[in-house]
Amino acid sequence: MKIFECKVCGHIEFDKAPEKCMVCRSPASAFSENAAAIKQPADATALNDSEKKHVPVIVVVKNCGLLPDSGCTDVHVKVGEIPHVMTKEHYIRYIDLYLDHVFLSRTWLSPEKCHAAAGWHLNAQSGLITAVENCNVHGNWISEASI
Ligand SMILES: [Fe+2]
């Protein structure tokens, strides 16, 4: 899968550049293909401690407590298996969420008062969830999970 990166805001799109960046509204010309825009663990089956602090962990909950009987699917994302720090010097800036590789939403996180985690209420009962998180020091990391 091709990875395109917005050079203005860092937003990632898959397969092709959008007409406009869904995060900062820059035109398609702001995007360039960059396979290195997302970091990959050296061995996905044996993460080292740094990778465990950055690879997002996706938890899907099919019975939503906030919107019961609506078919809502809750998607929770934490960074990561070992919780990432949220200090002013080193923190998770945002988590972007996708369904079937189509961008849905960005959650911005502030250091100190936010945990390295976010949640969404999706009007979807199936599909592939992708989470991309951005660490201000260590860049973008990705995880995927099926609903
Ligand atoms: Fe980091």
Describe, in plain words, how this protein is organized in 3D:
The protein has one helix and eleven strands. The chain has 147 residues and is mainly β. It has two domains: 1-39, Rubrerythrin, domain 2 (Single Sheet); 41-146, Immunoglobulin-like. It has a five-stranded mixed beta sheet, with no helix packed on it. Strands 2-1-3 form a three-stranded antiparallel beta sheet, with no helix packed on it. β7 (92-99) and β8 (102-108) form a beta hairpin. It starts with a strand and ends with a strand. Bound molecules: fe (ii) ion. The site of fe (ii) ion has 6 residues, from loops.
**What would CATH call the homologous superfamily of the largest domain?**
SOR catalytic domain
Approximate strand percentage:
35-45%
Strand order of the largest sheet: 4-11-10-7-8
Which compounds are bound in this model?
A: fe (ii) ion
Provide the low-confidence segments as ranges.
none
* Range of helix content: under 10%
Task: Supply the key terms.
single chain; 3-stranded antiparallel β-sheet; 3% helix
How do you describe this structure in short?
The protein is an all-beta fold and 147 residues long.
Topology:
Layout: E1 3-6, E2 12-14, E3 31-33, E4 38-39, H1 49-52, E5 56-61, E6 73-79, E7 92-99, E8 102-108, E9 117-122, E10 128-135, E11 139-146
